[in-house]
Amino acid sequence: MEGKPLALAVLLAGALAVGIGVFVLHAASAPPPTPERPRPPPPAAVMVHSDMRFSPVYYRTLIEQDSKAYGIPAPAWDDITQPNPYFDELKEKQHLRIKAPIETRHLRISMEISKVPSVIGGQALSADHLVLRIENRTPVYLAYRIQTSVPDKRKCSSKGEIPHNAVAIGPNQTILRTECLYRKDESVDVNRIEVVEMPALSAYYVSRLPPNATLYDPRTFTGHVGFRGQDSCQQTFSWREIKDGVDAKQFEWKDVIDFYARHNCSEYSFFKTYRYRTDTNAPLPARPLD
Questions:
Q1: Element (H, E) at 89
Q2: 125 within a domain of the structure (yes/no)
Q3: What's the predicted TM-score (pTM) here?
Q4: Which helix (H) or strand (E) holds 118?
Q5: In what order do the strands lie in the sheet with 107-120?
Q6: What whole-number distance in Å separates Cα of residue 141 and Cα of residue 99?
Q7: In Å, what is the CA distance from 107 to each residue of 104, 145, 257?
Q8: Average of pLDDT values for 200-220?
Q9: Which one of 148, 152, 195, 219 counts the least CB within 10 Å of its CB?
């Protein structure tokens, strides 16, 4: 009886050894796993190393290439590095009446009644609008912000739009923008007028900013078209961060505009510590570590 368990144990041990040997041989002869397919290379913009993008050589080359693409003379280096003159030209609200323009050092603002195509009650028609006429009185490019208000924005929701550059204006140029549908009791107040003088390339740069309600009123910004038509840059920054900074009064419109007056928004992103440039010797391009 004792020989049977021993024989059974020997038999089981032998079977186990054979099984392990077969598994090892199978594993050794099995083909290796299929390697992962190579991933496509990242976009060219991503492949540009940050150190290269922030080098003065790359920055100057970009300025020359962008000027050539826009068909305008490249600005002198001194024009890019010097402060862009900023003017807060109207700080107190003024009621704007037809045939009673407001004139500042740089702009002439007037109101007129004009027919503009719009959609009212589901029907397309040409309706009377209150139209703001903005005239650049100077021979230089300007970034501008004219903040206006109406008694009830909801009454303006179906107004038509006149395509216009809502960020920058050329030398001696006139821009028209709609404020609201015309009604006998409708009125427009001008709350603030801000202006920044800048080189031509800088005006082209800032006019490429995508429309957003952070810095401008959608009621007057919707018809925005840059100097090169619908040439808005891809959004490489957070409007939420900019809005939070503006709301907290950490920085303001002129700081954001001044940054993008010097930086192509397809290449560089505004950062919260940047301030309106006053030091001609500060490095360009600007970077958060500077």
A1: strand 86-90
A2: yes
A3: 0.81
A4: strand 107-120
A5: 102-103, 107-120, 123-136, 174-181
A6: 26
A7: 5, 11, 18
A8: 92
A9: 152
Per-residue b or e along 122-142, where b marks 16 or more CB atoms closer than 10 Å to that residue's CB = eeeeebebbbbebbbeeebbb
Q: Which residue is associated with the tokens 């912000």? A: 145
- The residue-averaged pLDDT of 38-51 equals 53
Cα atoms found within 13 Å of the Cα of residue 64, Cβ hemisphere only: 7
Number of domains the chain contains: 1
- Is the pLDDT at 273 greater than 80, yes or no? yes
Question: With the CA atoms of 173, 160, 238 and 254 taken in that order, what torsion angle do they form, in degrees rounded to the nearest 10?
Answer: 30
Question: Is residue 250 a contact partner of residue 279, using CB atoms and an 8 Å limit?
Answer: no
In this predicted structure, what is the pLDDT of residue 91? 80
Q: What is the span of the domain harbouring residue 132?
A: 58-262
Burial class of residue 95 (count of CB atoms within 10 Å of its CB; 0-12, 13-18, 19+)? exposed
Any domain includes 24: no
pLDDT, tens only, 48-65:
556 788 999 999 999 999
Instruction: Yes or no: say if 211 and 224 are a contact pair by the CB < 8 Å rule.
Output: yes
Contact between 137 and 108 under an 8 Å Cβ cutoff? The reply is yes
Residue 59 neighbours by CB under 8 Å, 6+ apart: 284, 285
- If we measure between CA atoms, which residue out of 114, 204, 124, 132 comes closest to residue 167? 204
Closest CA to 215 of 188, 196, 189, 187: 196
Quickly count: other Cβ atoms within 10 Å of residue 17's Cβ: 10
> Could you tell me the two tokens for 25?
């041989």
pLDDT, residue 47, reads: 46
Any domain includes 87 = yes
pLDDT tens-place string over residues 225-241? 999 887 888 766 778 88
